[in-house]
Amino acid sequence: MAYRFRRVHRLLKTDEFSSVFRLRGARSNLFFQVYAAPNTLGHARLGLVVGKKVAKRAVRRNYIKRTVREWFRLNQAELPACDFVVRARLAFGRDNRNDAVTALSALFAKLARCRASSSS
């Protein structure tokens, strides 16, 4: 398994984000809100939203995005064929990065359980 995060694994266009938001399949916790919508591509794709209300400085916003992308890159093989949009709700830094990654893993696990129960 090549752990890469290529262009085909990203949501890039506004209408791709809009279609995920429209379905309203979301789970949230203190750090993140994750939206999901099934796709027909056979692999998961990721979109990120980190607003200025969450973190004023671009350095902090970029750190949050890098952390989420890294988690996705390492875990994309286990994810279902869905489009995911991760919206940051609370800024975090190096001191509480592990808490944020654990919270993100928990949200994706919840979404996977939901998808499994709704498809059966």
From TrEMBL:
Pfam families: Ribonuclease_P. InterPro entries: Ribosomal_Su5_D2-typ_SF, Ribsml_uS5_D2-typ_fold_subgr, RNase_P, RNase_P_CS. GO terms for biological process: tRNA 5'-leader removal. Coiled coil: none annotated. Belongs to the RnpA family. HAMAP family: RNase_P. This is Ribonuclease P protein component.
